[in-house]
Amino acid sequence: YGDDNNWAKFGLLFINGRVLEYVWEQNNSPRRDPSLDVLPVQDDFPSTLWMRLTSDGADVRASFSLDGQTWQTAGRPVPLSAIPDPHVGLFAFTAGGPQNTATFDYFRVTP
C-alpha cells in the first residue's frame, strides 16, 4: 500500500465464486485481468492457506501454499517502484458476498 490510488493486494475473495487474486492499482487505474491475475478456486478449496508476498527489490510477487512447503505463483509481478512509500499489512472485508470470519495467526516481515 502506497496510498489510496497506488497499491497491490493479494486475497482470497468471493467474486462470483471463490477466487485468489493479486491486483495492482496505479494512479487510480486497476490492473486486474481475469485470465492473468485471478485464479478461480473450487468450492472445496481450503479456507486455511498460506499467502506470501516477496520482493527482489524490483518487483513484488504473490504466491500461495496449501501446506506451507509447496508454493504456487498467483498473478503477475508488480513493480515496487510504482508504489510510493510502500507499506505492508493484512486486510479482511465483506463486499456483498457471504459473511466470513478471517483469522490471521502469523505475519512476518523480513528485510
Provide a descriptive summary of the structure in words:
The chain is mainly β and 111 residues long. It is 0% helix and 40% strand. The protein has no helices and 7 strands. Strands 1, 2, 3 and 4 form a 4-stranded antiparallel β-sheet that branches. Strands 5-6-7 form a 3-stranded antiparallel β-sheet, with no helix packed on it. The protein is globular.
Features of the shown structure:
globular, 7 strands, 111 residues, three-stranded antiparallel β-sheet, mainly beta, four-stranded antiparallel β-sheet
Question: In this structure, how is the largest beta sheet organized?
Answer: 4 strands, antiparallel
Poorly predicted regions are none
Percent of residues in β-strands: 35-45%
Order of helices and strands: EEEEEEE
Question: How many angstroms separate the termini?
Answer: 17 Å
* Mean pLDDT over the full residue set: 89
Number of beta-strand segments: 7
Q: Specify the overall morphology.
A: globular
- Helix percentage: under 10%
- Please state the structural category: mainly beta
C-alpha-based Rg, rounded: 14 Å
Count helical runs. 0
List the helices and strands and how they pair.
Layout: E1 7-14, E2 18-26, E3 29-31, E4 38-40, E5 50-55, E6 59-65, E7 72-79
Question: In summary, what is this structure?
Answer:
With 111 residues, the protein is an all-beta fold. 0% of the residues lie in helices and 40% in strands. It is globular, with a radius of gyration of 14 Å.
